[in-house]
UniProtKB/TrEMBL annotation:
Residues 1-24 form the signal peptide. The keyword Cell division does not apply. It is found in: Secreted. InterPro entries: PBP/GOBP, PBP_GOBP_sf. One of its GO terms (molecular function) is odorant binding. May be a carrier protein for lipids. This is Odorant-binding protein 14. CDD domains: PBP_GOBP. One of its GO terms (biological process) is sensory perception of smell. It comes from Monochamus alternatus (Japanese pine sawyer beetle). Coiled coil: none annotated.
Length: 167
């Protein structure tokens, strides 16, 4: 399901490498609600979130602010986009190498033009790190991301055809 794929990437990346981490129903519901609230708040096109799940990070201000909103609701960043390392450390499960996880978090610290871009760049770094190291890359997630990207490509081609037909 797209909702959980997006959110799982964000949360798993934040706690840096939680391989096989499972969530309670309560946690899933909170994640789902935070995602929906941030989509409404930022008015982001959910297709851009799907594309980011597939590794296609579009340079879009609404997507950047969605990322900040979600991280902020999770308690990982301040309004100004500053990482709350104590909160992140506290939320790293006992089964994860905390030292390694904190190193990834610290290595991905970046600063953008504003708080939204800063958090977006940090998230992008985490995502790229997990993909480069094949962490949290289950066959289901790969297949889902590929289908979403293919669907997006088909939609864009249909729009171009429609535009050409009108001209």
């Amino acid at each position: 399901m797209k909702v959980f794929a997006t959110v799982a990437v964000v949360v798993v990346v934040l706690v840096a490498c939680c391989i096989g981490q499972t969530y309670t129903e309560e946690e899933r519901e909170r994640i789902r609600k935070n995602r929906e609230d941030c989509i409404i708040e930022t008015k982001v096109d959910s297709n851009l979130i799907t594309r980011a799940d597939a590794g296609d990070f579009v340079d879009d201000d609404k997507l950047k602010c969605f990322t900040k909103c979600f991280y902020q609701k999770a308690g990982f960043v301040t309004e100004n986009g500053e990482l709350l390392l104590d909160v992140i450390k506290a939320k790293i499960p006992a089964s994860v190498d905390k030292e390694r996880a904190v190193k990834v978090v610290e290595d991905c610290k970046q600063t953008g033009k504003d708080a939204c871009e800063t958090v977006y760049l940090i998230h992008k770094c985490y995502f790229e790190y997990t993909q480069r190291n094949n962490l949290n890359k289950t066959p289901e997630k790969v297949e889902e991301a590929e289908k979403a990207a293919q669907s997006e490509t088909q939609t864009e081609a249909q729009k171009e055809t429609a535009t050409e037909s009108k001209a």
